[in-house]
Design a protein that fits this description.
399 residues; 3 domains; three-stranded antiparallel beta sheet; nine-stranded mixed beta sheet
Length: 399
């Protein structure tokens, strides 16, 4: 196979050079923009099999016929194995070390990786509107959004909005991406005037009990008296866990097995500034369970605070938000940011469902990792950057 690099002022000129040199059977192996010091233009690496060379070029490049290659299976790994077998055969006539073979495999692996990247790049280009396909920076941005797990339709819409904005106003493309996404993040500020009674609801394992403890610490730091009640008597050890946390924080706490005990707890904690109510995840998932919880919430005149995990799938997040409409819902706590590296599903949920974001739980440390939700904090987490810490947990930006 003959391989050659072609440099030209633009893609069309380079393509013509390849056709003239190799004919229509040429394969594009890689493509890049020339660096500024080499002047404007592109560089394309192309190749053609010896048997596909144009007759005139084949005569110029006539070489001894290579030994028959071993029959190989399809796929990159099979190709590497075939080259190894050919190398071992050649070693019978000339010395070839294992280091030589390893170097060959490494080179092949790198070339295969580059070929995969080229194929992905071409596929992503075809997914974009024609006017954006020749913009490598926009293709990179589109791929970056897809890599976070964001659905293609959301990634395309955000990328195109950012591109139009950057075209009109100038500036960095990523900043325009942030501006395109920021209005989609609806923030509700519960720091100053939360409902007097907040019930935490959500699926099992979403982090409700931990969020309750974090909320208690959050509001205690702001001078409010806080007490806790748990209705979660279904999960083994849930009441004991909350009781231990309450003892550490110095909170009043009651475990309620039935409606009567719940009414008594409401009377006991009547003078508290804030009463936090923990609930069972299994009750939240069933229609009958949600109706029963609503009886308790109506008795307490409580608002519901939905707790969801950042690691949940987009469809599961949307289904949970739909279930929460059973209650008088005051906002959303996103927990367990530290348990996932891909926030595209959460970003897609925010774009599609427009939930009201109240708090983020970024990790296990209650005082440092539990904070008011803010657009900038989410954007930094989603795009793979470390968010700047907010002083005393306050938002860096009010929305």
């Amino acid at each position: 196979m003959k391989i050659k690099r072609f440099a030209a002022r633009d893609l069309a000129a380079a393509t013509n050079m390849i056709k003239e040199e190799f004919g229509l059977a040429a394969l594009i192996l890689s493509q890049r923009e020339l660096p500024p010091e080499e002047g404007p233009g592109v560089e394309i690496t192309a190749g053609v099999r010896d048997e596909d060379l144009p007759p005139a070029k084949a005569a110029e490049e006539s070489l001894p016929a290579p030994a028959a290659a071993p029959r190989a299976r399809a796929g990159p790994a099979a190709g590497v194995a075939a080259y190894r077998q050919a190398g071992l055969a050649a070693a019978q006539h000339s010395p070839v070390s294992s280091r030589d073979l390893e170097a060959l495999e490494k080179t092949l692996g790198k070339e295969i990786g580059q070929l995969k990247e080229l194929i992905l790049d071409l596929a992503h280009r075809q997914s974009l509107a024609e006017k954006w396909r020749d913009r490598p920076d926009l293709v990179r941005l589109y791929r970056r959004l897809l890599d976070t797990g964001l659905r293609p339709e959301h990634a395309r819409a955000l990328m195109e909005t950012a591109a139009e904005s950057a075209k009109a106003w100038g500036g960095q493309l990523e900043e325009h991406l942030r501006r395109a996404m920021r209005p989609k993040l609806r923030i509700v500020d519960l720091s100053l005037a939360p409902p007097r009674r907040l019930a935490l609801v959500g699926p099992s394992g979403s982090g409700k009990t931990t969020a309750l403890v974090n909320l208690a610490a959050f509001y205690r730091q702001r001078g409010r008296s806080v007490a806790a009640v748990t209705l979660d008597t279904l999960r083994l050890g849930a009441a004991e866990q909350l009781t231990q946390y309450a003892r550490i924080l110095g909170l009043g706490v009651r475990v309620c097995q039935n409606h009567q005990e719940f009414k008594e707890a409401l009377e006991i904690f009547e003078t508290e500034d804030l009463l936090l109510i923990d609930t069972a995840g299994r009750a939240f998932l069933k229609d009958e369970g949600r109706r029963e919880l609503n009886v308790y919430f109506n008795e307490a005149q409580a608002s519901a605070l939905l707790v969801l995990s950042a690691a949940m799938k987009e469809a599961d997040l949307a289904a949970a938000l739909n279930r929460a409409r059973t209650f008088r819902e005051s906002g959303l706590v996103i927990a367990k940011f530290d348990e996932t590296e891909s926030l595209g599903g959460l970003a897609g949920f925010i774009i599609s469902a427009a939930p009201r974001l109240a708090f983020f739980s970024l990790g296990p440390r209650a005082s440092e990792d539990f904070t008011l939700a803010s657009p900038d904090k989410f954007l930094s987490l989603w795009l793979g950057e470390s968010p700047a810490p907010d002083k005393n947990g306050e938002n860096s930006e009010k929305a």
